[in-house]
Amino acid sequence: MQVNGTVLIAEDEPTARISLTELLEGRGYRVIQAEDGAAALSALMERRFDAGLLDVRMPGIDGLAVLKRARESGIDVPVIVMTAHGDSGTVIEAMRLGAYDYIAKPLDFEQLILQLDRAVAHRNVSNSAVRQDGKETAAAPAIVGYSPAMQHVYKLIGQVAGGDATVLVRGESGTGKELVVNAIHHNSMRARGPLVKVNCAAIPETLLESELFGHEKGAFTNAMLRRIGRFEEANGGTLFLDEIGELTPALQSKLLRAVQERTIERLGSNTPVRVDLRLIAATSRNLEEAVADGAFARTSTIG
């Protein structure tokens, strides 16, 4: 039988480990078993694997710790995390640490084989490293939900959290967009920095520009002192602009410049100020319809 690749199975429960081994060997994989986290880490350090199946809950070194140490050591084998505890924190952390995918227990064997085949194909196509951030962060605020749809949300959060790209979170009011933003920030490289939030729909248009960019003394009536705006407050961290679809076209244009150039100008000043932040926006509006209606500029669309 043709060998499809070599797979590490790290599972502390003997019956489950043996069953998985028989399943994968029957599908043409060569299998190396590890009965705990220490054995799994040792195996990863000693030989090359095409993929790994890693249980989260193991005695001694747990699965996430194994994944973290492997990534810190430059081991880029695609890892599928197996967990009976598919809560948001576990899934997000696994994806942030560079897991290729995850699967919830009890295992769906056909789904597992499909994910494993894809992981090995990914390994064969590219040997580029996955995220190796490995930075300790504060615990993410809990998001409640164990459905397949919520598991997919956790996976997406984990995938985007490790980067620094601008993110747009979309959904109807009350669906938990702010919880998603919190989770992205607290699992990101900027978790030690501030998370500054602005509800663009709650601040009058005449005040919003000053709120975002700040102003100099004397910039307008009653501007008695210089005021630092939310962009500068978020320096080193994350700026969350909620209900971004409510911005006027004029503010959309100024926001676009800030997003593209990472510079802002306080009201009453022509001096650019550099800002180092990640921008996350959210909206409950249909932006495609807003663009068609002329209420939102296509060139200003974020995400």
Identify the notable features of this structure and list them briefly:
single chain; alpha/beta; Rossmann fold; 2 domains; four-stranded parallel sheet; about 40% helix; elongated
What can you see in these coordinates?
- α2 packs parallel to α3 and α4 runs parallel beside α6.
- The protein has 11 helices and 13 strands.
- The protein has 2 domains: 121 residues, 3-Layer(aba) Sandwich (Rossmann fold); 138 residues, Rossmann fold.
- The protein has 303 residues and is of the alpha/beta class.
- The strands form 4 sheets. It has a 5-stranded parallel sheet with strand order 2-1-3-4-5, sandwiched between helices. Strands 6-13-10-7 form a 4-stranded parallel sheet.
- It is elongated, with a radius of gyration of 23 Å.
- The chain starts with a strand and ends in an 11-residue tail after the last helix.
